[in-house]
Each structure stands twice: as structure tokens, then as C-alpha cells.
Amino acid sequence: MHSQSGTTFKFVGGKGVRTTEVLIVPLVAKPRSPMQLVSAVDAVCDDAVSELLEVGAIGEELGHRAHTTRGGAYKRILVVSLGEREKLDCQKVRKAAASAAGWLIAERIAETALWVDGLAASGVEGATAEWAGGMARAGFRFAEHKEPDKKAVEKIRVHVRSSESGHADHTLPQIRDAVTIEAAVNYARRLAHQPANVIHPASLAAEARRLAQQLKLKCTVLETAQLRRMGMNGLVAVGQGAKHGPRLIRLDYRGARDARTTTVLVGKAITFDTGGYSIKPAKGMEGLKFDKCGGVTVLGVMKAAATLKLKCNLVGIIAAAENAISERAYRPGDILKMASGKTVEVISTDAEGRLILADALWYAQKHCQPTALIDLATLTGGVGIALGQAAAGLMSNDDSLAADLGECGRRTHERLWRLPLWEDYRELIKGTDADIKNAAGKQEAHAIVGGMFLKEFVSDDVPWAHLDIASVAITESENAGGGKGATGFGVRLLIEYLRRRIS
Ligand SMILES: [Zn+2]
User: Fold this and answer.
1) In 3D, which of 253, 105, 93 has the Cα closest to residue 175?
2) Which of 20, 34, 72, 240 is the least buried, fewest Cβ under 10 Å from its Cβ?
3) Per residue in 268-293, pLDDT tens?
4) Res 14 pLDDT > 80
5) Quick check: is 280 catalytic?
6) CA-CA distance, 406 to 64, in Å (whole number)?
7) Predicted confidence (pLDDT) at residue 416 exceeds the cutoff of 50
8) C-alpha of residue 122 to centroid of ligand 1, in Å
9) What pLDDT is recorded for position 2?
10) What pairing do the DSSP bridges indicate for beta strands 464-468 and 392-396?
11) What distance in angstroms lies between residue 225's CA and the mean position of ligand 1's atoms?
């Protein structure tokens, strides 16, 4: 991996310990850590930690760093604040870890030790693994189109240390899993950042093939002619204006051949969304390359599930198209006969995501026998109006699936909030000259209208959930633990879902 793609972290156990230059010590700031805990780490760094604590250098602010060059066998000690114990959760542990990772990267340190007693005593379940994941995430950098930074450290080795013998080795498998998942998150983020002249439906399909080959997955790609033959006119219409036509990409992972369950994920990948003839405003249009985030998250989940060798059956489907303007592009007013047989009047060519997803959901039900069907899409601006950046919108026809996903969202801090799909909203998509229309033509219940539209294409007896990730797939905030831009939202959430289904 090149430094343009950021920094990776390799966590190693306590055997064959040798002293590194730097010792990182995460500690809860309030209340003060117990004497016993502090004296254990003091023993290896000549009381440097208690000296920092005494002068109040640790700070109650989460991720605050206190630093000394007087550390016995270590040249430097870095105490990282976990803030208030009362308020601490997995996300805050990850943020503090990102602060430490940022410091290591800036200081160009290739090898470090991590004292994990403070994490183990933090009261947060799996805190050490969360920390490792937070560091791995923070190594993300999208700079492959820039001149390489020759001095950047590509890989940082982290020696896990603890006063309890065996603790470090014991947590290492969880740490490695967390790092594996985060590598898949960063893979999805990297793809998301690629501009539309690099990632278009054809090159996204090629990327999926590459991934499938690497992970020994089955990969199927349907192109325009086949899509047309199968009647998937929603996907065809949206993609027909672009030079690279639409693709339906399918990846199959079979980790539990005997199991009767198959989770099918469907991701929206509009590689660039001009809005079509219902054109978007120019301001911020460059950000519409991120309209493929649902699709790349599906690739990230496939990568993580296969690398972790999860004992589950998983199908990933990506509906890929570029919503372009040209003489071949579809128009407002067009009536499309979808694969399911339903007809749709196009009110807005910018409500294209639901058109491609509708056909992909139909395909999933017809060809993949899903026992759970979950779609992810940057579908509506309306979901951000409703929930802001704190949660993705969850809509579902199945209470138990919705509850499961909600719980996974709480655990991973990729939170979901359920919105209703009541019959009352059906009126908003009732067609004039066709069965239904793809937009209500007004602001009312914007995110829900998207869900209501998709529901038209899902059989009542298939447990289905729609995740509208439009407001959480990208962030403007620098301190979200890994910088601005794509978040890879959904990878950790869905891996948690798959793992909980197995155990
Ligand atoms: Zn659009």
C-alpha cells in the first residue's frame, strides 16, 4: 500500500517485547484513574505518567494529548485522554484513538507501544478493539492523484502492552478483526472519493471483479443489453444518457453452505448525479460523485465478510449508473415499465436512485431468495432535514429486522432512526398517467416518499429494510475520526448485523 492511500496499523502481541520510542497511554481523565492502574504503567516509564497526571496535563477534553520526553526506557510518553468515564462510549474511544493516530502520523513514527490497561478498565465493552479500529480508520488518506509524500509512514507497528500477563495476546484476535473491518471501511471510502472520470459503471464493475477474484467470490455483471432483455428499464433509463452504460453488479459470498438464510444487500451507485434534465444547482455539484456511497459500502461489506470468513451467505448487488445529460438521456414525463411490470411516470429525473433500486430489488427477490433484504442509498436530501447527521433513516416492512438493525446501529454508533411507511403516504406517489410516479413534486415527507416508492417493488413476505444514508455517507467535520468526506457508513453496521445473526 502506498502512502498516498494513507497509513495502515499493524497490531502485534507482547511476546518478544522490545522497547519502542513511544508509549501511548489512553486514560480516563475523570474520575482520576486508580493508583494501581497508574503505578503499573509508571513502572515501565519511570513515573512519567503520574508526573503528567499531577500537573493536570491530561485534560478532560476527549482525545486531548499530553506528552513528555522523560519516560525511562521510552523516549516519549503520550497520554491520551478518554474524557469523562460517565460519558464514554465506543465512538468516543474511537475518536480518542484517532487523535493518537493523527499524532503518530504527523510525527512520522513507524513503531510504537500501546498501554491498554486504561482501555480495559474504561467500562466500554471491547474498548481495546474499538481503539484499534479508531486508529486504523484515522489512517485514511485519499491522495493517490497527488504527488507522493515520500516521508509519510505507510505502516505503523503497534505493540500491545498490558500489566496483566496474557491480556494483550488475549485481545489480539478482536483487535485484528476490528482492523480488518476498518480496512474494508477505508476501501469503501477510497472508492467513494474517486471522481466520476475514474469510477463510472464500467470501471466500478471491473473493481468488483478484481475484489471478487482476490476474495474468491462469484461475480456477475449485467450490461445494458441484458438489463433491457430482463425488462429492467428503470436502471436502463437512468443510465442511458451516459457514455458508460448502466451495470447490475452481483457478488456472491457463501460462507455457510448449509445455512438456510441469505442476506442480500442492494446498494445504489450513481457514479455521478447531474440530476439529469431536472438539473441540480452548480454549487457543490462536485460532491455528487458521492452518490455511489451505498454501492461502495456493499463492496466494503463483501470485503470484510469474506476476509473475516463469516459463516453466513451473503449476496451483494450494486445498481450502477451515471445520471447524465445528453440527447439519449431520459426525460421528465417519460413512462417506464419496470422489471416488476409496474409503470412509473418520471416527475423528476433527479429522483433516479429509486428507479435503479426498484429494479435491483426486483432482481434480488427473483434471483437470490433473500431471507433478509437490505438496501443502502444516498437517496434523499429530506432524510438530512429530518435527522441531520446523527442517524441514517431506516424504513422497513418488518419489525424484527428493523429492531435488529437498530440495535446494531446503537452498538456500532452507525445509528439508524426508523421512519414510518404508512398507507397514508401512498397518495404522494399515486400516478396520473402511470401506476405510480417517482416524486411527489413537493417537499412533504421527502425521505418517506423514497421508501414508499421502493416498497412498491418489495413483496410483503420478504423482510426488507431501506437505509437512507444521504446525510451520513459524507461528513464536513474534520474531527469525525478520519477527516472530511466519505465515511463508509454501513460497513461496520452490517458486519455487526451478520455477526449477530451467526452467534
Ligand atoms: Zn438524483
Assistant:
1) 93
2) 34
3) 999 999 999 999 999 999 999 999 99
4) no
5) yes
6) 31
7) yes
8) 44
9) 44
10) antiparallel
11) 24
